[in-house]
Design brief:
The protein contains 10 helices and 13 strands. The protein is an alpha/beta fold and 331 residues long. It has an 8-stranded mixed β-sheet, sandwiched between helices. The two termini are 36 Å apart.
C-alpha cells in the first residue's frame, strides 16, 4: 500500500565550508514521515539534528553552508525548486518550527497577540482585525487568557512564552511541525504541561511532528516513531516498539544502557566510551566504529541501510553477522 507521506527526503547532505576545514554536518540522510505521525529525532549534541531541521525549512545560511539533496518533498511540493519568495509563503503555513529557547524566539518590542496575528495575516486571506481575533483564540487554545494578547513577552514566564511560540507555530495549522527541544529551557512540571499541550494540539489539527530531543522519555510520551542520529546520519529508525524493544544498532544500545535504572538505584550506568567524532574528520565507514564494542574490519567500509521489517531499518554491517545480538540491559 502506498504511503501517505507529508515529508520525503532522500540523500540530504549539509556541510559548512570554513577556514578550519569542511564541517560535515549531515551526510546522506533519508527521512520519510507519514501524515499525522510524530517522529522523535534523537542523538547526542552535535549529531546534526538541528541542522537537519533548519535544512528542511531551507534556512541553512549560504555561505558558509552548502546544502545538497536528491529529493525534498513537503506534501508533494518540491522544496528544492522554490524561490526565496515562495519559501516565505510555505514557512509558517505548511511547515513551522518551535525553537529551543522561547526567550529568544519572541520579539520583545511587539505584543504576543501581534506576533501571532502577523503569522495569520501573512499566510491567510483575512483582514488584520480577523487575524487579531484568531490570535486571541490561539492564545486561549494554549491555555493563556485572551486578554493577555496585549502583553509583551517579558511579562510572561518561560513556560507561558513557550506556549505563545507553540500558538504562533500552529496558528496556520501546518502540515508539518518541527519542535527543536521545546522543553529544554523549562522546569520539569512545566515540561510535562507543554508536552501534553503539544500532544493534544497535534491530534486536534492532524499535524505531523518532528520532535528533536536527546530525551528518550519524551519520545516515548508523544512519538509514534524514532530516528536515532549519529554524526549526521540516521543509524536506526522504526516504531517505538521496534527501537525500544528490538534495538539493533550498537549506538542505540549505548543510549539505552546509559539511562538510569529507576528500579535498581545501585545499578551502575554504562556510558558510551569515547566522544562524538570531529565532523571535519569523520572516520571511514561507520562513524561510530571507533566507539563500538562490536567493531570489525567491515565497519570501516561504507554502510547501507538494512531492512529488518517494513517499519524498522538499521545502518550497521554487524547486523549481517551470524548470531549477532544486541545486549541491551532491561530497565
Amino acid at each position: 500500500m502506498k504511503k501517505d507521506l507529508v515529508l520525503n527526503v532522500k540523500n540530504l547532505v549539509v556541510r559548512y565550508e570554513t577556514e578550519d576545514g569542511i564541517v560535515k554536518a549531515v551526510n546522506g540522510l533519508n527521512l520519510e514521515i507519514e501524515r499525522g505521525k510524530a517522529i522523535g529525532l534523537v542523538g547526542e549534541t552535535g549529531a546534526g539534528k538541528t541542522t537537519t531541521a533548519l535544512s528542511l525549512l531551507r534556512l541553512i545560511p549560504e555561505p558558509p553552508g552548502v546544502e545538497e539533496c536528491g529529493l525534498m518533498e513537503l506534501d508533494g511540493l518540491d522544496m528544492l525548486s522554490l524561490t526565496p519568495k515562495e519559501l516565505e509563503k510555505v514557512r509558517g503555513k505548511d511547515i513551522s518550527m518551535i525553537f529551543q529557547d522561547p526567550m529568544t524566539a519572541l520579539n520583545p518590542v511587539f505584543t504576543v497577540g501581534d506576533q501571532i496575528a502577523e503569522s495569520i495575516h501573512l499566510h491567510e486571506d483575512v483582514s488584520y482585525t480577523e487575524a487579531q481575533r484568531r490570535a486571541i483564540d490561539m492564545l486561549e487554545l494554549v491555555g493563556i487568557p485572551g486578554e493577555r494578547a496585549s502583553d509583551y513577552p517579558h511579562q510572561f514566564s518561560g513556560g507561558m512564552k513557550q506556549r505563545v511560540v507553540i500558538a504562533i507555530a500552529l496558528a496556520c495549522r501546518p502540515k508539518l511541525l518541527i519542535a527543536d527541544e521545546p522543553t529544554t529551557a523549562l522546569d520539569v512540571t512545566i515540561q510535562a504541561q507543554v508536552l501534553e499541550l503539544m500532544k493534544n494540539l497535534r491530534k486536534k489539527y492532524q499535524t505531523s511532528l518532528i520532535m528533536i530531543t536527546h530525551d528518550l522519555g519524551i519520545v516515548a510520551e508523544i512519538c509514534d516513531e524514532v530516528a536515532v542520529m549519529y554524526a549526521g546520519n540516521i543509524v536506526e529508525k522504526g516504531t517505538l516498539e521496534d527501537v525500544f524493544n528490538r534495538t539493533k544498532h550498537p549506538y542505540t544500545e549505548g543510549l539505552f544502557n546509559s539511562i538510569p535504572n529507576i528500579y535498581d538505584r545501585k545499578a551502575m550506568l554504562t556510558p558510551i566510551k569515547g566522544l562524538m567524532p570531529d565532523p571535519t574528520n569523520l572516520p571511514e565507514g561507520c562513524p561510530f566504529h571507533p566507539r563500538c564494542p562490536y567493531m570489525d574490519e567491515d565497519c570501516k567500509k561504507p554502510q547501507t541501510d538494512r531492512a529488518i521489517s517494513d517499519t524498522h531499518f538499521v545502518r550497521c554491517s554487524a547486523y549481517d553477522r551470524p548470531g549477532f545480538h544486541i545486549n541491551r540491559k532491561e530497565k
